[in-house]
Amino acid sequence: MVWDEKEIERITCERLIAQLGEKEGDARYTRYKTARNNLCKDVYPHIEKYGSDGLTDHSAQHISNVLDNVYQLLGEKAGIEKHKGLDLYCLLLAVLFHDVGNIFGRDNHQKKIGEAYDKALTHAGRDRSEWLILQKLVDSHCGVAIDGTKDTINGLSRGTAYNIDGNLVSMGDIAAVLRFADELAEGPQRTSDFISQHLALPKDSEIYHQYANSVNYCIDKRNKRVVLTCSISVGSNMKSIDEFDEDFKTLMRFIVERIEKLNDERRYNRFYSDWLEPFKRLEITINIEDDSKYKRHLGEIILPEINDKVIPDSQKGHLKNQHPQYDESKILEAILERVNMGS
Length: 343
Prior knowledge:
- The chain starts with 6 loop residues before the first helix and ends with a helix.
- The model has no long low-confidence stretch (mean pLDDT about 90).
- A hairpin with a 4-residue loop joins β3 and β4 (about 225-235).
- The protein has helices at about 5-20, 20-40, 45-50, 60-75, 75-80, 85-95, 115-120, 130-140, 170-185, 195-200, 205-215, 245-270, 320, 330-340, and strands spanning about 165, 165-170, 215-220, 225-235, 280-290, 295-300, 305.
- The protein has two domains: about 5-185, Hypothetical protein af1432, CATH 1.10.3210; about 190-305, no CATH class.
- It is an alpha+beta fold.
- The radius of gyration is 23 Å and the shape is globular.
- The strands form two sheets. Strands 3, 4, 5, 6 and 7 form a five-stranded mixed β-sheet that branches. The protein has a two-stranded antiparallel ribbon with strand order 1-2.
- It is built from 14 helices and seven strands.
């Protein structure tokens, strides 16, 4: 499956020509299409069969969904046209390759893209500058950084001047958009009721399919928000919490964990990219329906908005709790240490 050319792909071609000239711009976009078409033919169809360990969909449909998310995060046509062609090109390439390593297994899949890159561009050849950039971008979309934390973008936002033929590439911005667009690519398109009910999934994977089947994301840049809607089915005659079975309680715990993760990713990627600056809040609605064949709507729960607003004095003392070094006694000790070193 190769999707029809998307608006973000068409605009990227235009921006490449505007930045590099018609000949070089066309050559870069042709290179992108070659990689896309070969991955859709030779790699994406086989990831689920050989390497995904029962996780949710990583096919061409997932890549198409991530590209759609990028389009909406950047502000559709008007927003995308503000960016340089090579930045968009590297972003789209990173989307194509970010999950291909899953064909060799889920663990450290972000580090296993070399074989797929060479296969997808067999006749076009390896571009060393492009390859380095692609490695760095894909490696940053998940996993662990060199310091043992999940702050994988930090090293890309400063230091080395990553470039293609002398044209600087906005690594931190691209890595952040890729990572957030991928985080938002959840929903029923990544699974199905049939898979959840009838296939023998690994136990650790079942919950991911249940979650994907219950959620829907809306990227609403105009209103500076991401909206998550979760639909769940329950028995309409329950009288106490004790009547919820353990599987349902487990799903609700997982939903809360994923909301927390989504908000962490929103704040994290927004920190590293001005391209994501508008997304200041997360809104959550839980739709409740009964588990009969009629699926009657029983109501909805609108959870408190999650945002970055801080009301002055509302969290007095939180700075010391988060960073003990800001305790005045610690500062006094540091001052005394410097005094003694200089005496």
